[in-house]
Amino acid sequence: MSDFTVLCVNTFAAYIGVIPFLIILQLLFRKCRLPKRHQFGVYLYALGICLILMASDTPSLYQINFYPQFNFIPFYGFMDSLGHYIQSFLIYIPFGLLLPTLWKRFKHAGRTVLYGLLLSVIIEISQIFCLETSAVTDITDVIMNVLGTTAGYLLYLLIRRMHFMRRMCLGTKDARKKVLSKWEIYIYFLAPWLVTFLLTPFISNALWNIIWNYALGMPI
């Protein structure tokens, strides 16, 4: 089974766990009367975070093992792991696209790229707690993640005037919406991360059991 298929299944498993939290959060925020397109965009943002966490081998509570492995030489062994680095670039494109699309303060390129850098560094540092040989804290990953975020922002500049992009941004003068706009991005990052940390291994195992037992007819 391809690595891409495994990534898709694990991302879907993480997202299954996140959706109930997203629904609860949006019920809590219903008095703010958020635009429907913005609410839909937040679901896409949470899916993008799940994709990044799953693709980066972010450890769960049940997989923590302090086993630091580092590569501080940019592009060392790049061609040997070309597929991995292309993935590191691609998974951050939706992130760079959705930040300025959903939140007004990220319409500045520098802030979007900086946030992508910080997220990448946090995830790379977390990988020192992964299971043995499962992940390496790699400067090249950070570089590719930042390039992916930048590419996503450039894509935003190309499509920002299209009809479907309207009313997705939460820029407003309303006091409650302004406060929510400030914290929403962190809230919708924290929910996927907590689900990934606490619940995703159980959901993923159940999903793989269903796939093997019913889709492929290979009981495990």
* Contiguous helical run count: 8
Number of domains: 1
**Poorly predicted ranges (pLDDT <50, ≥5 residues)?**
none
The termini sit apart by 15 Å
- Which class of secondary structure composition applies to the elements? mainly alpha
Question: Averaging pLDDT over every residue, what do you get?
Answer: 87
Strand content: under 5%
- Helix share, percent: 55-70%
Order of helices and strands: HHEHHHEHHH
Strand order of the largest sheet: 1-2
Number of strands: 2
How would a textbook summarize the main sheet? 2 strands, parallel
Q: Give the overall shape.
A: globular
What Rg do the Cα atoms give? 18 Å
Key traits:
single chain, 220 residues, mainly alpha, two-stranded parallel sheet
Structure, described:
It is a single chain. Helix content is 65%, strand content 2%. It has 220 residues and is an all-alpha fold. The protein has one domain (3-215). Strands 1-2 form a two-stranded parallel sheet. Helix 3 (82-90) crosses helix 6 (139-159). The longest helix is centred in the first third of the chain and has 26 residues, at 3-28. The two termini are 15 Å apart. The mean pLDDT is 87.
